[in-house]
Design brief:
By secondary structure, the protein is mainly β. The chain has one helix and ten strands; from the N terminus they run αββββββββββ. The strands form two sheets. Strands 1, 2, 3, 4, 7 and 8 form a six-stranded antiparallel β-sheet that branches. A four-stranded antiparallel β-sheet has the order 6-5-9-10, with no helix packed on it. The chain starts with a helix and ends in a 7-residue tail after the last strand.
């Protein structure tokens, strides 16, 4: 009986949903883009950003993605995480309430910059 209780407790702890905080979605060329952060609460320092690109029922895995904070920061290429439409990179954040993540996307000769304010991941 004790073993069953321990197993149930472990399943409860590991089965809890993550604390992922997701930005409001933005659309470009039929794709939906959202940002997740690691850690989920953005504070000053290095923050890993996950750009999730979705084309309806399948992920957009053929993009070139760069990230920077603000409109004058240095662009840094995001790393494609498998072939699931996720691109990740850690970037230095100074002021989570004011900073914006700029996401440069290039796909099939077209390009854009999407701007995501970081306040979605700051406790209110």
């Amino acid at each position: 009986m004790r073993l069953v209780m321990i197993l149930l407790l472990l399943l409860t702890l590991t089965g809890c949903p993550g604390n992922a905080v997701v930005s409001p979605a933005q659309e470009w060329e039929g794709m939906i883009f959202q940002i997740e952060t690691r850690p989920p609460i953005v504070e000053p320092g290095m923050i890993e950003f996950l750009v999730v690109a979705d084309r309806g029922k399948r992920r957009a895995e053929d993009l070139f993605v760069n990230l920077r904070i603000g409109s004058s920061g240095r662009w840094t290429q995001a790393i494609q995480d498998g072939h699931v439409g996720v691109y990740r990179r850690a970037v230095l954040v100074n002021d989570p309430l004011q900073d914006e993540l700029n996401v440069y996307v290039r796909w099939q000769g077209k390009e854009t910059v999407l701007v995501f304010p970081l306040d979605f991941a700051v406790p209110k």
